[in-house]
Amino acid sequence: MKIRDAKQEELVFIREQRVAAYLEHAGEIPAAHWQALKQAISSNADRHPGAELIVCEIAEKIVGSVVLFPAKTDAYEGQLEELDYPEIRMLAVSPEVRGKGIASALIAECIRRSREKNHEFIGLHTGEFMKQAIKLYTKHGFERLPQYDFEPANDGIIVMAFRMSI
User: According to DSSP H, which parts of 64-130 are helical?
Assistant: First the structure.
């Protein structure tokens, strides 16, 4: 397993892989919410100034990715105030390789990079319907921060905030 920064020429593949990884949720949420989510994870938000697009490779094949947004960034395009700590966004692992520690390795890399920059905390947001992701994040020590929850599509689906001390 190799963790590294993504290359520019890998962006299209990474975004397609991200959509494929999130596709399992399409049937759990209203179609309009899925379309908004799909657009967000396919957008060029992963190239936001200061954002780090990180991939995991196994046998020279990208099997997962994550974006680490710097502190004090509008990572959610006006949905939320800028936070004083980095944010993990768009964590995705190819469905066929789940359960091999790829997501945990990507989370650990984000924590390592944030710690190197002397941040006290690292945060993330995830849809309330992403039950496995919530279990993963709480297993890693992330705690709920409901005051930073938001409802992006005004459809009753909450994007839940989490943060951990590093």
Answer: 102-116
Per-residue pLDDT tens over the stretch 94-119:
999 999 999 999 999 999 999 999 99
Please count the other Cβ atoms lying within 10 Å of the Cβ belonging to residue 117.
11
In the chain, where do the E strands start and end?
Answer: 2-5, 52-58, 61-69, 87-93, 121-127, 143-144, 159-165
Positions of E strands within 70-165: 87-93, 121-127, 143-144, 159-165
* Sheet with strand 121-127: strands edge to edge: 2-5, 52-58, 61-69, 87-93, 121-127, 159-165, 143-144
Please tell me whether residue 38 adopts helix, strand or coil conformation: helix
Give the predicted TM-score (pTM) of the model: 0.94
Question: Confidence band (pLDDT; 50, 70, 90) for 76?
Answer: low
Buried/exposed code over 144-166 (b: 16+ C-beta within 10 A; e: otherwise): ebeebeeebeeeebbbbbbbbeb
